[in-house]
Design goal:
Layout (H helix, E strand, L loop, with lengths): L4 E5 L5 H8 L5 E5 L2 H4 L8 E4 L6 H5 L6 E4 L10 H4 L4 E3 L6 H16 L2 H9 L15 E5 L3 H12 L3 E5 L11 E3 L4 H7 L2 E4 L13 H6 L5 E4 L8 H9 L5 E4 L19 E3 L10 H17 L15
Parallel strand pairs: 1-2, 1-3, 3-4, 4-5, 6-7, 6-9, 7-8, 9-10, 10-11, 11-12
The protein binds oxalic acid (OXD).
Oxalic acid binds next to loops.
Length: 317
Amino acid sequence: MAPALHVLVLNNLADRHKDAIMGVHPEITVTSCDLEHAGDYIADTDILVAWGFTDIRPLYLAAPNLKWVHALTAGVENLIFPEIQQSNTILTNSRGIHGIPVSEHVFSLMLAFTRGLNLLIRQQQAKQWERVPTEEIHEKTIGIVGLGAIGREIAKKAKGLGMEVLATKQEMTAEIFVDKLYPPEELNELLAASDFVVAALPLTDQTSGLFTLQQFEAMKRTAYFINIARGSIVREADLITALQTGIIKGAGLDVFDHEPLPPDSPLWDMPNVIITPHIAALSPHYLDRAVKSFADNLTRFVEDREMFNIVDKQKGY
Ligand code: OXD
């Protein structure tokens, strides 16, 4: 193996996390600090671990020894830039650890709408006792746009709740929890057939701005749109129009074009919208899972074995 490997993590780590990383090999050292102090360590860093939304480009340009950048997130939007694309630096992400919290978040939004919680919480604040219309998700159709690890966990739970499951996917694979798979070109067919549309795609050149008025118009007027992917896969002004004019019934949104969502966004006040501040993946177990996944990959790196979760730097996922 390489003589010594310096790992720099741009996040606070508990001792158990540092131990898990250093436990991979005696020659590994770990430094954890915030972005502001990273410049003090970057010259000696071999492996940089950062959140996918952190702008690491200036650090990257000052890191002569860097061999590998690892994202603590699934999204790597700020970790891809021309210099890294043209380099041999390995880029990996934490896909595979999000399924449980994100799928639970998706169903909390869907059930909130079907049980009227979006309206009832407003009424509670006004001390108002009034029944609201309720629906069931049993036997409804969910359309998962982008069937990756998160999409599969959503599909599994949807089946458990008695739903019909549709999904789009690049390659047609055998899927136990999906009733019908569509290639990406047939997105609008999936939209037309779904009562709940869940966006679970990575943000890439192909998916940026994928949802426009045309896609919302393809959906049922009774359908709900749930976005736990990235805000930029949606043309936000079109989503607002669709929600304001009844083209779709409601939206549960965890991600936005600009985060935090600006105070003047009309989305804040819409009763048919539930907003959560990009927390779908968060859970007390997040960092434990992320560090475990990184340490497993570090073992492979050290032993010169095939690594997993490698991001295609051209495709962006
Ligand atoms: C992620 C996220 O990309 O939580 O991991 O949004």
